Amino acid sequence: MKQELKIPQATTKRLPLYYRFIQNFAQEGMERISSKELSEAMKIDSATIRRDFSYFGALGKKGYGYDVQHLLKFFSQTLDQHEATKVALIGVGNLGSALLKYNFQKNHNTHIVVAFDSKAPKEGKMISNIPVFHPDLLEEKYAEYGAELAILTVSPRSAQKMADRLAVMNAKGILNFTPERITVPDKMQLLTIDLSVELQALIYLIRNQEE
């Protein structure tokens, strides 16, 4: 996203969801929507939606709501939907293999173009039509395939080492699926998704709701 504004990370994570639902409204032929309608569809309270939208100026009009085509164009430009983003996957275990198979099929501008795994031969192999190479070739093949971002699904002990190598290569960002709390330079973007933490949070919410 090419935004100079300091947008809260929670808001940033919701932007692709807004875009997806706005696309759905457009496909249904709707010309305008209210924050209440968007709230009911997304299961997000309308106050949060209005606050998120307020970071980007006047996206709607009081008493009218939001023009669907205007929002569609805005989120498309904000999320750079017209610019293809090439991604490298590092670590092809169970999760990595699933990501290769899925390969962001519903997001036509984002694709995994190359992967790396310690069990791959030096000459490489194909998995789900994606070339997979040994990590020794990371610097060479990352650049050759034009990757901008990396997804880490390696073991925790390898995560920081891989992040350091990516930093030297001037990778723009990392999506970290390992439980390791890695650090990167300020110029890089880092998002960590710890599935075990998310699951524990869900269990906590369920059990407290039951009480």
TrEMBL record:
**What SMART domains has UniProt attached to this entry?**
CoA_binding
Q: Tell me what this protein is called.
A: Redox-sensing transcriptional repressor Rex
Matching Gene3D superfamilies: NAD(P)-binding Rossmann-like Domain (3.40.50.720), Winged helix-like DNA-binding domain superfamily/Winged helix DNA-binding domain (1.10.10.10)
What GO CC annotations are associated with the protein? cytoplasm
Q: Which GO terms describe its molecular function?
A: DNA binding; DNA-binding transcription factor activity
The task this protein performs is described as:
Modulates transcription in response to changes in cellular NADH/NAD(+) redox state.
> Where does this protein reside within or beyond the cell?
Cytoplasm
Family matches, as HAMAP family: Rex
Q: What is its main location?
A: cytoplasm
Keywords for this protein: Cytoplasm, DNA-binding, NAD, Repressor, Transcription, Transcription regulation
Quote the Pfam families the UniProt record gives.
CoA_binding (PF02629), Put_DNA-bind_N (PF06971)
First and last residue of the signal peptide: none
Describe the family membership recorded for this protein in Swiss-Prot or TrEMBL. Answer: Belongs to the transcriptional regulatory Rex family.
* GO BP, sorted A to Z: negative regulation of DNA-templated transcription; response to redox state
